Structure formats: structure tokens, C-alpha cells
């Protein structure tokens, strides 16, 4: 079907409250990524989907199309972890998933951290890693070398998903969260099959965990806290939808169950990239603080999802050990040095 008619047909169905099939969603997103959809069509589709509510098949089909148009990193995807989340919580915390990725790598988890510049906060993962001295502009071959050499790399979304530019203007003009907020974490360029994915919408944790299953993930935790964070919180219980052994189960976890103290939410708020980089450095240096506790909660979950701990609490203990030994700070230093070297040789 010609692209315009395909999109018009899909939009008409969505307006009537009908769901797209997985194939229809894949084809429509393919047309968008290929630059064959107008801004008006994209805006209409995103709005109709948001009002109707996105289904597993729709999100899966969209993600499959985006993966097909993205640049791929050729590496072993088994037991490879990503900590990319949706953002969009509206709470200006520091970059918890980014420092959790570094700690996980120090605990011998292979990590391909997918991320971008800030969308809703004051500093995205790309912004804070730059402030920490990391060269974020690695191409696919350089990223593979970095991952193979030190067990972690950063995949800057703007480099790996150039076709997203076709949807940039409609998304910006709409100014509301759309299905694209959920798609970024589902399109890791290295094909990571393990994930800790924070999401802003608690009603979607099981949906996104099921999408990850459909996309081939082996282990995942999709988390959204009851106090509004797209992370595991230390200020309130967190809703978790966990994918394990092909089954998605949903439950709540509290800071106490992880062996951590509760802290007010305002104690883990962040600032701009420089401020957040200073917070991350203090955590990796072993300073005791609420910042440390919320990082340990999330890094512990990463280690658990990677299969290096039998329980979440056990993952937290392993995270503590690599921080307190200095291994986590050393891993950041390795990442800075390796990306500088790759930048130099390029």
C-alpha cells in the first residue's frame, strides 16, 4: 500500500478506537522513518494513539521498524545490559540509570548504555557523561571496541537513529509525551537482551515488559515508583514488571526489602549536567548519602537482571562492594580514557 494511504487508513482506524496490528504498526513506522509521512500525519497518529492507548502489538511493531532503520553495533547481544529509560517523569533527579550502568560494568556486567540528551530533565545521559569527560560520539565500530575492551560503551541515540529526525518537529510541536518516549529504550543498537527500564507511566509496566519479551529480551525489569520516578525509588514503593523465564510478573518492592533506608524524594533531586556529574562522582567515591542509596537500589537491580545475583537485595550488596572497593570509580576512569583514545585514533 502506498505510504500516504497506509497512514491515512491507520489514522482513520485509530480515531475510531481500533488497534493497529503488529504488521500495520511496523509498516506505518517504517513510512515515518523513511520520511514518507507528513508532519500533520505524524502528529495525528501520535495524538490518536495517545488518546486510544498503545497496545503491545502496536509498540512492538513500531520498535521493530525503528530497529530496522537504526545503525547496529556488531557484538554479542546475549547477557548484554541496557539501563535506558523513558524519562518524562517531570521530576528533576540526577542521572541514576547512567551511574547504575557504570557500577554494573564494574561488577562484570557487559553494558551497552543507550541514551540521549535531555528531553524532560536538565541533563540527559549524554549531557552528564560529557560533563564527566566521556567522548559520547563513538561510531558503531568504536563502540564495539570500547565494549569489548572495558565491558561498557555509550550509544548516543542521535548517532544510531538518524531516521528519528523525521518525527522530531511533530513531537516538539505537540509538546506531550507520545509513544516515541517509550520506543527509545526498546531500540538498543547493540541488541541488548537484558534491561532495567524505568518508565514514567505506571499503567504501562506490564505492557512494556511484554513488548520486551516479544522483541527477544531474556531478562528485564520495567519499573515505575509510586512517587512518580521512572526508577526504583527509595522514597516510596516501586511497581515492577519483571520478565524472567518467558513470564511477566508484577509486584511492588520497597527500599527496606533491598536493605536500604527510606529518604525524602527531595534528597535525590539533581541539577544541570555539571551538578549531576559531581553527584555521580561523589557516589562512585563511596560517599554515604541518599544519592548513594538510590543508585545502589537501581544498580543492584541491574546486577540481578544480568544474572549475577539471585535476589534484588543480593544485587544491592554486590553494587555496594564494587563502589566501596573503588572498582566503580575505576570503571568510569577507564570509560573516559578509552573514549578519548578512540576519539584520538579516529
UniProtKB/TrEMBL annotation:
Mg(2+) 2 binds at residues 230-231. 5-phospho-alpha-D-ribose 1-diphosphate binds at residues 85, 88-89, 95-98, 113-121, 125. GO terms for biological process: L-tryptophan biosynthetic process. Binds 2 magnesium ions per monomer. Mg(2+) 1 binds at residues 97, 231. The keyword Metal-binding applies. Keywords: Amino-acid biosynthesis, Aromatic amino acid biosynthesis, Glycosyltransferase, Magnesium, Metal-binding, Transferase, Tryptophan biosynthesis. Its EC number is 2.4.2.18. The keyword Iron-sulfur does not apply. It comes from the Bacteria. InterPro entries: Anthranilate_Pribosyl_Tfrase, Glycosyl_Trfase_fam3, Glycosyl_Trfase_fam3_N_dom, Glycosyl_Trfase_fam3_N_dom_sf, Nuc_phospho_transferase. Its cofactor is Mg(2+). GO terms for cellular component: cytosol. Pathway: Amino-acid biosynthesis; L-tryptophan biosynthesis; L-tryptophan from chorismate: step 2/5. It catalyses: N-(5-phospho-beta-D-ribosyl)anthranilate + diphosphate = 5-phospho-alpha-D-ribose 1-diphosphate + anthranilate. Anthranilate 2 binds at residue 171. GO terms for molecular function: anthranilate phosphoribosyltransferase activity; magnesium ion binding. Residues 12-69 form the Glycosyl transferase family 3 N-terminal domain. Residues 79-329 form the Glycosyl transferase family domain. Anthranilate 1 binds at residues 85, 116. HAMAP family: TrpD. In the C-terminal section; belongs to the anthranilate phosphoribosyltransferase family. Homodimer. Catalyzes the transfer of the phosphoribosyl group of 5-phosphorylribose-1-pyrophosphate (PRPP) to anthranilate to yield N-(5'-phosphoribosyl)-anthranilate (PRA). This is Anthranilate phosphoribosyltransferase.
